[in-house]
Amino acid sequence: VPNREAVLEVLDAGVLAHVAFVVDHRAVVAPMIYGRAGDDLYLHASVASRLGRALRRDRAPRHAEVNVTIVDGLVLARSAFNHSMNYRSATIEGPAGLVADPAEMLEALRIISDHLMPGRWRHMRGPNEKEMVMTAVIRIPIERGTVRARSGPPIDEPEDLEWPVWAGVVPVRLGSGEPIPAPGAVSESGYPRRLGGELGR
Amino acid sequence: VPNREAVLEVLDAGVLAHVAFVVDHRAVVAPMIYGRAGDDLYLHASVASRLGRALRRDRAPRHAEVNVTIVDGLVLARSAFNHSMNYRSATIEGPAGLVADPAEMLEALRIISDHLMPGRWRHMRGPNEKEMVMTAVIRIPIERGTVRARSGPPIDEPEDLEWPVWAGVVPVRLGSGEPIPAPGAVSESGYPRRLGGELGR
Q1: Which residues contact B148 (CB under 8 A, 6 or more apart)?
Q2: DSSP secondary structure letters along B37-56
Q3: What does each C-alpha distance from A194 to A120, A179, A199, A200 come to in angstroms?
Q4: How much is the pLDDT for A48?
Q5: Any CB–CB contact under 8 A between A170 and chain B?
Q6: Residue B192: its pLDDT value, please?
Q7: Of chain A residues 115-134, which have a CB less than 8 A from chain B?
Q8: How far is CA B172 from CA A87, A195, B127, B132, B181, in A?
Q9: Low-confidence stretches of chain B (pLDDT beneath 50)
């Protein structure tokens, strides 16, 4: 990937991936959580999902394209045409295959967990054999990727600058609120303190 | 659509759509802003985008699948397997076609604008002919769609309830911050006051 660092930066900052692949000559798309280890992207899916089912049927990788987009702001210009968004968006494509090796799968689950909830993995009850069978982890090598991004104020045509409308940027951000304990939650181990306000940065 | 109301509710609450379609036998996916009028979904694209180019080449609609997902929270269970997300996700599929009629296209642009920035459209300088030519609006009928959603606390196995880890929900939300005026922005018309904290609800 020529712009490898830029691709990885967006992947590491995002929360949700949208994964597209072909089923019966049609494109389908599904949101998935993910994590990254080096140049491998790991997607979390159910074995019953469309991609999980297709990969189990094929017994071979299937081409997929993955997009991760972070919205940073709405860009309000004087003209409709120059309205825009501030965002960071990474797209990668490649062969998506099921992770079959239990050790790699377990490590991938830890990586996905740590991506969303840093440091929590070691506090949870880990997956047992039955649960592993119901889970699908999909690996895509990060070999072909592109990044698109925009930041900064609106760019207006010079002749529009006097148009009587407010212009500027509305910052947007995926943030997390005060954690809501489940009934009976007493332990402080694995409390999600590091999530506060950090999501999607 | 059997669950039409549920599909429309998610579409109306979301901010970004992920649009998947086939190009050269492979699935591609791109994030787009959108708006809805009745049972039509309008996507905003550039004529230079992959979908814009494909549709201009075809001169006919092309099958697409669109997903809009709103993340509402991280669900932290005692076991790794029972971790989840609270979310609302709508997927529709159908023939995606370029809007050719200038009047419908202008109305669709207003609808997309109002979806993201309620009430602002009438304050902006509207698109001129040259700008309209550089814009692509894509229409997909909302005929086939599904909704998936989860809400509420984690559901743990009874035997895991004593596991020494905090459990509960971390609410997540796409929120907007204090607007940042562009240099020279003086008018208060179209000030984005209605966006504050409302995005993504």
Answers
A1: B87, B88, B89, B91
A2: ETTEEEEEEETTSHHHHHHH
A3: 10, 11, 9, 13
A4: 87
A5: yes
A6: 82
A7: 116-117, 120-121, 123-128, 131, 134
A8: 19, 10, 36, 37, 27
A9: 194-201
